[in-house]
What we know:
The protein has 332 residues and is α+β, with helices and mostly antiparallel strands.
Amino acid sequence: IGRNYGGNCVEQMKITEMEALINRNYKNICGMNVLKNGVSVYEAYFQGCTSESRMHVYSVTKSIVSILLGIAMDEGYLADVSQRVLDFFPEYAAREKEYAKGEVTLEEVITMTAAYKYRIPPYIKYFTSDDWLRFSLEQLKGRGGKFRYTPLIGPDILTGILQKTTGQSVLAFAREKLFAPLRISVEKELIFKDKEEQMAFNQSASISGWAADAKGLQSAGWGLALSAKEMADIGQLYLNGGVWEGKQLVSKHWIEESTKEHSRWKKRNLPYGYLWWIDEQKDGFAAMGDGGNIMYVNTGEQLVVSLMCRFDPKAKDSMDLIKQQIEPIFRK
């Protein structure tokens, strides 16, 4: 473990207890960064990882796509969230006869309230398709109104819209508008030749990139590799109201809109914004991915916590660790 922390003896004891708990019960956690009032107050790495390690952060990718949509809206590539999805793809809409599908809006996709045809996600067909956008559009059914979380099949409509409206790859747009200013390294697009390559990516701590289909469209619901520090910096950008080193990267208006409740997963009573999970009790929000990956922002405490994790289907809840262990230590 390599760590950096400055605090009094009592706080150091709590830190030591927390690290023992992580090593005992959260063995999937590989990196943690905590920022308080914009300053790094804790940074640690586990399981042989370092500050240079980058991992697949799964659905944290969705919240990055939300940021890019906000930037695209700020710069006039998109008008507003009420735009109809199929209006961006007239070449597809011309062959599509379902009226209900044609009425689905951008807002319904980013709030997980659009309806899709599938009951059981056809993951194998999706991963073996060479056109994730078309596959997702074909699964689109209509205006649902009810929250239905769609982890993989559906969100690629959003990266399709970004690519279509900006005239460049989503990775190129992200590099210019978000990654470069934050000094985030995403080296290449990752096009997997087979299942084994994709599985290796899921376990790797040294691949820098963003998954894409055979046509070069970045995935929207998964597929981005980030470090713990990079996730923390993105959280701090949102805590700063979209300002980084004096430059407004994404508007405060978009941040406020995307991190307030627009829909709710009633089964678990979880509010949802624009591809962000909302924490009602803590005046905060989070990007959450499989295996415990998380980018958490508590605006009231001016606290940012990021956890970079290796996928484990039996991973304990990272949010529980944050609420029960991490927040109490750094609440001042």
